[in-house]
Write a structure and sequence with these properties.
Inorganic Pyrophosphatase; single chain; alpha+beta; 195 residues; 30% strand; 3 helices
């Protein structure tokens, strides 16, 4: 999983631009760079140009992330960032900045202040505790309600009413969105990166 198809270099590689989105497309496994764990109000983001983690902001309330969270390499969502991943069911905190393989179980469509900012829903691919979870529906109604509540209220004290969950969809729709984001990365982001 961690092998990179590049010759050794004295310059550090930025995994956002080196790894493909899919670690194994046939098994719905994504390469995912972990940005943060559950139970935090701190929002860490990968600096797209350099690959380092940055504290982007401290949340305005005590509402904490209910899942681990990361970014998919070589993707570009409509909000101008790599496509996001919610990693559910993580039993032990992950190391921020580490690379994991996450298995797709769905996608949540999300509008953040007028921008499309969809979230792939996944589990850790190598966690046997999650092998039986093959669809977001298996997480149950309470999980959907909790996730919807988080995303619709996480910015409420700063910008009330600006976030809207537009539904949960299955693996097929998630793969479609990921592929659209891979294309957008090549067509929109890479020309700027190479300039």
């Amino acid at each position: 999983m961690a092998n990179i198809d590049h010759a050794p270099s004295k310059y550090m590689l930025n995994l956002l631009h080196v790894l493909p989105a899919f670690a194994n497309e046939g098994k719905n496994r994504l390469n995912t760079i972990v940005e943060l764990n559950s139970m935090t109000i701190n929002k860490y983001e990968i600096i797209t140009e350099s690959g380092q983690l940055k504290l982007d902001r401290v949340g305005f309330s005590t509402l904490t992330y209910p899942f681990a969270y990361g970014a998919i390499p070589c993707t570009w969502d409509e909000d101008g960032d790599p496509l996001d991943v919610e990693i559910v069911g993580v039993t032990e905190p992950l190391v921020n900045g580490c690379l994991v393989e996450a298995r797709i179980i769905g996608i949540m469509k999300f509008d953040d202040g007028g921008e499309v900012d969809d979230k792939v829903i996944a589990v850790l691919a190598d966690d046997k505790r999650m092998d039986h979870i093959t669809s977001f529906e298996q997480l149950g109604e309470h999980w959907r309600n909790e996730t919807t509540h988080y995303w619709e209220f996480y910015k409420h004290l700063k910008k009330p009413g600006t976030c809207k969950v537009n539904g949960f969809y299955g693996i097929e729709e998630a793969v479609k969105i990921i592929k659209e984001c891979e294309t957008r990365y090549k067509e929109v982001y890479l020309p700027k990166f190479e300039a």
